[in-house]
Amino acid sequence: MNAIVQIHSQPKLSSTKVPVGSRRSASASVTALLPQVVLAFDAAPGRESIRDAVKNAADALFTTMPKGLTVQLAVNGGSRLHTITRPTKVIGTLKGQICGIRCQPGQSQITQVLEWARSQPKAASAVIIFAERFEEIPEVGCSLADTLRARGTTVIIIHDPARCSINDAVAFGEIANRAGGCVVPIDAADPAVLRDIFGSVAALAVGGHEALQSLALRRPAVRHLLSRWSAIEPVSH
Hints:
With 237 residues, the protein is an alpha/beta fold. The protein has helices at residues 26-33, 49-64, 91-99, 110-119, 138-150, 166-178, 191-218, 220-226, and strands at 4-6, 36-42, 70-77, 80-85, 126-130, 154-159, 182-185. The chain has a single domain (30-211), classed as von Willebrand factor, type A domain (Rossmann fold, 3-Layer(aba) Sandwich), CATH 3.40.50.410. Helices cover 44% and strands 16% of the residues. A 7-stranded mixed sheet has the order 1-4-3-2-5-6-7, with helices on both faces.
C-alpha cells in the first residue's frame, strides 16, 4: 500500500480520508493510539529551503519521543492541499516521503491544512506549519484555530521573518495564539541554534507548554529562544 496519498482534484476537505485496508494489524492498532503530529508545508518553487527545515523538525520530533509518536505530512502546492501521507513512526520513511514531494507553483493554503486537520476523526496533538506567506482570509484561519484548540490540537507556525510581510506575521501570530501554540522565527544558520529550536518545537508539540517549560529550565539556550516566540510565557529561573 502506498505511503503517500495524492489528492488530484480540489478536495472537499471535510470528507477527505486516507484509504485503509480491510485488515488492521496489531502494529497498526498500537500506532493508532500514539500521539500524532502533522508537519505541513508549502511545496511551491522557490521555497525548497522549507524542505530542509521540515527534515530537521522530523529529526527533533523522533528524538524527543523515539518510540511514542507518529508523524504525517500535509503538503500544499498549486494553490491546493495535494498530498497527505499516512502516519508513520519511522523517521526514514518520513524523510523519504518529504524528498518525494514535487514543487508546484501557486498560493499558500494554510486554511485548507487547518480544515483538513479539523475534519479528521482523531485529533492530532499538534499541527506544525512551515510557511512564508499567508494569502487567505485571516478570519477563516482564526475560526479553524479555535476549533482545533477545542479538540486539543496545538498549532505551531514556523517561518523566516525576512521572507514574510507584517500582515503575514500578524495572521500567523493570531492563528497560532488562538490554537494554543506559538510562532517560531527561524533566522539562524547555526546548527546548534536550529537543533534547540526544533527540539523546543518537538517538546511543545508532544508534551505541551509544561514539557517546553521543563526543557527551558534545563537548557539556558532554550530560555533565550522562548523570549522571542509569540504566545509563550516567560520561564522562571
